[in-house]
């Protein structure tokens, strides 16, 4: 009989995450009990303080991490082996929290819609009915978006920090479910928003079906769900390899779906387009960060000894993803769909970094590691994506946001600063030097090249050229084309959106010119704990 | 005891779920098929737990059930709004977002 | 003064100028941004002259500054100057103020301060390209130059500017990204042999395998071939020059495109000597095709700006030829050619720009008889044209002849084909001159006024420089030669000795 | 050394030693060598850059600089004669021009008997023509610029003949080409003038191509391009190499000296003002090809095949030019054809090797005198006839323009080779030497002399004799003194040029440069050959007298003429040949390439771009909006992933 002992959670290490969850729960309570007029302010303040505190906590924990594994890694496993708080996890936490702050500011923006937020006044009210009109005249807001977002952030923090398959699954669902809802809450173009939510939900659920079945198979192979244990089982080579491979494949499907890799990318354009722009920005940036963190932990830790079999698979996926993303983006005429495909292409580049994993013995001193490169890329990607979508939310006409590209013509004349910033983000996404996009690209290409994946790098380079085309097209439209009709107009946002954009610009510029500190931080984070 | 029949069964259930998602138009049915896939996983988990002689799989099955329940909450909410707006639960009707 | 950071100053001054110009408020057409641009470019010229005075011809790479930049990438902020770089720095810093002067009123109806700020930014980045001693730094500034160039073409050009700008940018990006693969490959290679480093001096020590070397070489070469440009990746060139303002074209063709040939010299030869040698036959043939093809196309053009653009295709053929024949005449000639082509083509572009500005059309068929009404314009245009066709006494002759000698030493047929370029050059230059400047005064031309002082002032230094270098090229060659010798040592080639050396015969006669 | 056996037969044949250029450093008056060039160059710079400020006195400055150069040249010449035979080569090093690796070229000047004669010719005749131009161009508002160009020409020509190496020679070579371009197109508002100028330059460039290649080959072979170094080492080179160098130099010479097949520009070049035709296209520049070959004697003497080629070109050209001259009505074009033909004689002389070099130069100098004389005379006639050049509008001018007529007559007698006149001595010597080489060449050259007699007589008759055919409003008058003075001086020289042959002075004088000829006996005595030539010339003169002098000259050229006349009028179809073989195919190539560039080269890139766009449009359709098809692709992806894993493992 196993003697019962109180589980050790290690609050000292995981409290920032718990705090976020706590804030989310508190948000639900606020929603239930606070009077309507103070709800918005309370929710925003609560979430902001919660995220800030969590961020401070993350930094403090990060400074305190003990070195393990001979100095190669830092931190430790806690919560009965379910959660691991190591360097990369802390790094990702910090990043997710920063992006969440930016996302929160976008969520809280009320200037653009003339005093109300971008979310449906009353989601349950049917579009075009009296109820909806009433909700909008009364200036109703769904302040539930804030707790929903906090739950998602909590899930995102748990995702890359989970140390076993089950925790990972739970984290996946915790981060996904609120996002499904958030996607459907747009104030304008309700039909599209709801459709996006439905598609996202059905496909998400479908993919998590694969994910959990994969978990079952891997569990069947290894007899344990813990990553370390799985790795050990692989090195001992016990059990039925078909189970392992099939399980690995199915788990990959779930993760690759989340990061939006081809051929699992189908949901991205539809959801990115339909969801409220603030949600799209947050989701595009933060989900990718969390999912790549989890992906790498799974591949590097659980399947680390099986590298030679998943690397070729990732080659195929990465190449496919880059091609699909770059090619289809060319054909888009909606800015959000174009950014969605661009994000698919970025997934491809990130995968290029992931597949560049090499064991420590293969690396020479001072050489950039795959983990370091991908973490760095995530930083650059996160900020520029958030910033870009923030800009998208500002370009509007009478019917709300004008996402059709033709309506962006002549923006450079109308509002040189906004156009300039957007052009800067686009150039960064295209990977032009002196922007963060370039340094990120360089890093992932370099690790892939070091690992001998030169064909992937060549494809990556070619698709970058292809991708440049559609980014440049937007710049041409903004600067060198004459406006059609009344032309686009830029609604001046409140300081909230402005701060987010400023954050994005600053990060993109600094990481382009002096990426050293962040790269060092990523290097300092060390390896994953096995 | 051989685990094979259970695993085969679970695989068959999973496949049925899959095919169901692909073929059915009604969002509720599609969603039920996803649930079927989750339950196929549960069966596999429990089977492997028995075979491996530890409890992790069984615990996992519980978690999956909880998660599935949560999914239902969210899913039904979304499907309901769509249905109320469109007067249709057919997933094929929701196809404005394309190309 | 010994530790004064000359090279950083060179890079920073125009960049600061760009920022200042861009952020000081002014209306379109205001004089302030123009004066600022002139001030900062002149300061840069002063810094370049200062650098030249500090330069010691025999001392190889010098005035170097090295600071760690991105440690994780092995990248440093490393700048230095040798004979090749100094030549191009002088060219750049000389041309830009003149371009500013010549383009004084080109952007009056548009965003004037942006126009001049972009020019300054372009200058700073171009100088950084020539001075970079670190491959990543080079790559970064190399690509960064595209952005100001792109906006200069697309924002301030004429008809079809947006299309031309996109074409330009995409060509360049394609080349640049291919090069990125090689840049990244160099990192991988360098990391596999110890601490990763991007310093050219360290990379040159690498033990690069034959196959790897050739692939990496290709990545660099393709990018430079597009940049230079060479047949068959040249089609962006005439479109761009036709759409951009002449001043922009000068910056693009006379300064930026030199990066391509400079890169071949510095990186293709410097880092991949074996591969360069291996590629020589193909590159030489491509260069020959470029020479003849560009010249033939130029003959058939009716648009002056396209024509001048295409002549550059021919000239870049010569430069590439000089580089890849791998002998001292070819290499020194090619380096000098970069300088001289910058001068002569700049003069052609600017003067053609004056005429186009007055006539409102770049079409040759719309001109005629300009000499009668504007003799100074015609005269300077003729001198620039004669320089372009390689008339002895003007500087381009020296370099063209050196390249031809180099080509001939490489193989007689190379020299024989390349030399046909001088006939074709005579045809396209003189045909253009004949059709635009001579003959009866065409309708519309009679109102053309002769050049004013500002315009002459922008051209005169170029013409003067061409005559001076034409008669006294040796000071410049003395700067170039040692750097070329170093390059040849790196590649491991030597000049072929003459078959019947003079001097030895006499001794035998005496015996 | 393998060269010795090769040299042996030469040595055995006679004492024909190819001299080596071995100059001593300049001292005394020779240190002023550079000033000879610098004076006109400074003049050109002042006149061209000075603008209208120099309008008033520009022409005087232009004349002064050239006269100054002539004075120095004369001083140097006197000083040179005072030196010993083997000490008549002087060089002056100005500065290092180009030095790259083994390619070292100095700005070095070489003054030797050959250069000395040329210097006198250029500055002397040039000075006279400058003076003449003061009058001729008096009414042109751009006279100052004209003098600037003339000065530029003189400077370049002096560089050409004073250069100590091939590249510096090439500098002068191209410089005179530029001056020629500028001066042919001086009245560039006339489209014909502008076109002629361009044509001259472009055809010359074809020759320059040969010249450039020759220099490269010389460098590759000898590692130097100085005359000193090459002449010293030439004996060691393979004959085939030397032949190649020789042929390439010949190509250059053909361009500059308007020899077949690069002859077509010279007739068009008459678009320039007449003094230009006299100076550049008769007396000096066009003879640069002869100079080049004579200067490169150390190469040609060792490359008999190249010499044969020179002779072939020369003979064809001397007949070609002469035939063209017979049918032209434009007085300047007759003279141009004649120039072409006379240069053919010089080339013939140069092609004959050591035996002929001196005579080639001798004829060159004489031709410089009499042809300049005649061109200026023609200019004087045109001056009188309101710039009409058509001889059919002349007639009976001998009374109206007595000085012009008399001086022209001297030139006429000189060119047809009237005994005692300069042309008689030099042409006779060349034909005589040709007979030694080959009877056929001698016969052809003699025929050429006969034709010369015909067309020059025709010119004389149509211009100065026969009946008046003047245009209305034309009142012929003699030219001012400033124009007749040069005519008189040149006429005197045309008569007296033969003095240079006294005691074989010119042959001995040039011997340090071109070698001492061994005297070969002809099969018939020289006097017989001379008599035959005179007879043939007399026949030509007589034919002209009977066909033109005795009948009425129509004012409009008859159109019903023989095939030969028509061919000659069309310059023997030289332009047509160029057109068919070069210009038209060239135009087609250019147009074809332009299309090719747009559709194939650019089309490939652009097509690729649009193909990518099209592909994107196709794939875009896959995103059809139906969630179930997305699910299908997800399932497909899952299968792909699992299969990929399995394949890697099992395969």
Automatic annotation (TrEMBL), chain B:
GO terms for molecular function: NADH dehydrogenase (quinone) (non-electrogenic) activity; quinone binding. The chain crosses the membrane at residues 6-22, 29-49, 61-83. Keywords: Cell membrane, Membrane, NAD, Oxidoreductase, Quinone, Translocase, Transmembrane, Transmembrane helix, Transport. GO terms for biological process: ATP synthesis coupled electron transport. It is an enzyme of class 7 (translocase). Belongs to the complex I subunit 4L family. This is NADH-quinone oxidoreductase subunit K. It comes from Nocardioides guangzhouensis.
TrEMBL record, chain C:
Pfam families: Oxidored_q5_N, Proton_antipo_M. It is an enzyme of class 1 (oxidoreductase). Its main location: membrane. One of its GO terms (biological process) is ATP synthesis coupled electron transport. Residues 132-424 form the NADH:quinone oxidoreductase/Mrp antiporter transmembrane domain. It is a multi-pass membrane protein. The chain crosses the membrane at residues 6-24, 36-55, 75-102, 114-131, 137-156, 168-189, 215-237, 249-272, 278-300, 307-326, 338-356, 376-398, 410-433, 454-472. Its EC number is 1.6.5.11. GO terms for cellular component: endomembrane system; membrane. Residues 66-122 form the NADH:ubiquinone oxidoreductase chain 4 N-terminal domain. Keywords: Membrane, NAD, Oxidoreductase, Translocase, Transmembrane, Transmembrane helix. It is found in: Endomembrane system; Membrane. Residues 492-511 are annotated as: Disordered. One of its GO terms (molecular function) is NADH dehydrogenase activity. PANTHER family: NADH-UBIQUINONE OXIDOREDUCTASE CHAIN 4. Belongs to the complex I subunit 4 family. This is NADH-quinone oxidoreductase subunit M.
